[in-house]
Specification:
This protein is of the alpha+beta class and 79 residues long. It contains two helices and four strands; from the N terminus they run αββββα. The chain is globular.
Length: 79
Amino acid sequence: MECILLDEKDCRRLRRAIAAGREIRIVKTLGGRTEEARTLPAGPAWDVDMLVQVRTLERNVEMMQNFATAEAFWAWTRG
């Protein structure tokens, strides 16, 4: 399941939030599809301080993925 609502502007916001160590949340909904991206502190298993977590919900199917950088998230969305 790919991201189609989150865009490059959202990726820039996520990148700035990670650089500042801030937690943010971006949610976009269209029809029956919701995409959410947020920054959050990384756990000890990660080699970074902050993560991007993406959650997609469409027709009772939910997908969640964590990324170490906003760039990795953006590359994944472009597939």
